[in-house]
Design brief:
Order of helices and strands: HHHHHHHHHHHHHHHHH
Distance between the termini: 41 Å
Oligomer: single chain
Strand content: under 5%
Number of strands: 0
Length: 302
Amino acid sequence: MSAVSVANPLPVQSVAPPDVARATTEPVWVRRALIGVALVFLSLFLFVPLVSVFFEAFKKGWEVYVAAITEADAVSAMWLTLIAAAISVPLNLVFGVSAAWAIAKFDFRGKSVVLTLIDLPFSVSPVIAGLIYVLVFGLQGWFGEWLMNHDMKVIFAVPGIVLATIFVTFPFVARELIPLMQAQGQEQEEAARVLGASGWQTFWKVTLPNVKWGLLYGVILCNARAMGEFGAVSVVSGHIRGETNTMPLHIEILYNEYQFAASFAVASLLASLALVTLVLKYIVERRVHQQMAQVQQAGAAA
């Protein structure tokens, strides 16, 4: 009987239960309602404020707009914002690549602790980060007296702004590269080493080309956050006009002084940066997804 039952198995019908079908197939009106809710939400909290920024910026004419963005304090705020981003983004690029390579390619004690520390800026308020730097480098801080004796200034100066910007932006590159490197595995690097490549040659010829789109994606996000950071920079800057005000701080001062046209004019520059960032993010994100799909297909084939 057992031989017969094995040789002639009963046909099995792979039909999903009715409850599962009802749970995974929504009526048309439900899908349209969900899409409508999403569109209303995006309109109220994204499109309408964005349009309002540009409308208010050009409300009093092109001359007023140009005067607002070419005014001395505005130009100083733009330069300081660019300086902070130009310093913090490359440093975070080096840190992100190094941290991702170490975490994804090596096993060592304390790896989970390193991952937790990388995520620290996501869980700590930027204001708290700024206060930490004031505690360490302020006049009453741990190194305040030493800095004053050596005529060095960190808080209420450009170095403090750069340090605060670095703190709030350093997870972005690492967090984009870690899952990508982990998905790729170590086979290609090991093959390169077997063929005689050195560590640097393996990195430049194998590892870096494989993660270039994820790296660019992380740099774009890091730069956008660096140029738009407010909380931490506000604490350490001192709000000195023409010296320690970045673009977000300059916008706040103009708005508090009821210079609405000027404040929206400068804000439109940051909004334009956000739009450019979104376009670049979309393009690079598609490349990253394609790269991840190729990695998964290669892993399945292996």
